[in-house]
Amino acid sequence: MTSARPHSPTPPGDARPQILVLRALGLGDLLTVVPALRALRAAHPGHELVLAAPARLADAAEATGAVDRLLPASATGREVPRLLGRLGPPPALAVDLHGNGPASHGLLQALRPERLFAYAHPAMPALSGPVWREDEHERDRWCRLVAWYGVPADPADLRIDAPALPSPAPGAVVIHPGAAAAARRWPPERFAAVARALHCAGQRVVITAGSGEGQLARRVAQQADLPSSVVLGGDVDVPFAELAALIAGARAVIVGDTGLAHLAGALGTPSVALFGPVAPRIWGPPNLPRHRVLWHPDHIDRPLPGDAHGDRPDDRLLRITAAEVLTAVAQLPEPDRTSAGEAEAVRVG
Asked: Confidence band (pLDDT; 50, 70, 90) for 14?
């Protein structure tokens, strides 16, 4: 596979037809569309697959094994980028894996692709496509989209290989207290209680932090009576290769509904995921023994019972106790060190 490093123009002499895929969101969002990306790659082996996504995801895009090139594209929150700084002829195929339109559809239509894969939207009646479903897992959603257009995709095809880089903390329990919104952040004092208990039980603990989350991670470490050296990241994002090596070599990951949960799923690392405003059936990990989900919904079953972008921890998230998390960690199986390629061989064979 060629490098997925950020690069806008078409490389000189590369006359391959292009597939342009829009997914200008975060790490977890990228990892949930890996099955759809691989299906597109398998169906069009002679095409160049270009992913429009934030530049910081270049290494993660390369790790999928499906992306040839990353076209830097981003917007605030989950908005649609205003423009795609793209040069060259119109793509042979544009694929909207960003949303259900109309803004994302219109952004791709402006490129005049020969074909466009997208969900139907009443504001764009001329565009045919499948009907959007609110109550559908994100991996299934995008596999169903490409399958509707004749490209079969397997939602279970989400594993990626661990990087060659050695883990900075092999066998550690990785705790990630951050999330993009307060609604999905479990209280730091509870993360600290879990970290302290695991450390006292002889487990090595690492606390990870994304960009801007260093203060939160250090607070958790301090309340757990752990040195600040257990914190990885904080001022800037941890480089993807280093983060992936850490997760791939971890004993377990304890995390909220955020990108690191999806990275644990992609690498086959046991995890305990804490859910609140969003139902796990929409964004949860694969239904496998190595992943445990803690969630205490209301009696009304809804895919989005709370505000995923709220400014305070969701009530459902607050119902999870530190004791529950420790019990779930104790029940996790040993890590599966099978590579993505070996896992695929076992699954297909």
From this structure: low
pLDDT score of 342: 57
The confidence score (pLDDT) of residue 76 equals: 87
Task: Give per-residue pLDDT as tens, 70-102.
Answer: 999 988 888 999 888 766 789 999 999 999 999
Can you read off the two tokens belonging to residue 133?
A: 């479903």
- Mind listing the domains of the chain with CATH numbers? 18-148 (3.40.50.2000), 173-340 (3.40.50.2000)
∠ Cα 324 329 334 (to 5°): 160
The pTM assigned to this predicted structure is: 0.92
Instruction: Identify whether the C-beta of residue 228 lies closer than 8 Å to the C-beta of residue 221.
Output: yes
By the 8 A CB rule, do 158 and 139 touch? yes
**pLDDT tens for each residue of 230-289:** 999 988 889 999 999 999 999 999 999 999 999 999 999 999 999 999 999 999 999 999
Positive or negative: CA dihedral 154, 155, 156, 158: positive
